[in-house]
Amino acid sequence: MPMGARVLRSLMPSASHARRSKQSGPGRAARRGEAAARVLRQFRQVFNAVKTHFQQVEKRAGVGGAQAWALSIVRGQPGIGVNDLARAMDVHQSTASNLVKGLVQSKMLRADRSDEDRRVVRLRLLAHGAAVLRKVPTPFAGVLPEALASLDEATLLRLCEDLAALLQVLRSDRRAARTPLADL
Questions:
Q1: Which pLDDT score is estimated for 167?
Q2: What is the secondary structure of 60-86 as a DSSP string?
Q3: The domain defined by 1-184 carries CATH number 3.40.50.720
């Protein structure tokens, strides 16, 4: 049985599980409560690390974390389109479009229409955007994406399964998966 299924089964008691829990006594419940508290503290540490990084970005550069990330992608890929920017950031196209709109209005990006297809917009970093990026503490994408990218595949697969089980219990909104952490 996959790890995520085991976690889900342990979080959603069945009738037989309820009988086993009664038989096992308060020791099992106490251990489970302690484990839940440890995991909760770990989530708090993760959220605090993410929040602290985005606060540093805002304080040093005067832009939000998602804006800084978008600027860094455009710097690395001059002429990128909004759809490709959305894919690079793993956000919905409308989210990327709104980011771009604000960055264009702030004179950090330039959006030029393609000569071949007027519907296509090509993004370029402006001097003001480059100056802002120089102030941004790295990593541009944020500390959590960088930390996740540094983990081995087996760890990532376990995390994926276990978090899927947790999300199922939470009955979370799947659309939130495309919201940048900086915007939470």
A1: 92
A2: HHSS-HHHHHHHHHHHHSTT--HHHHH
A3: no
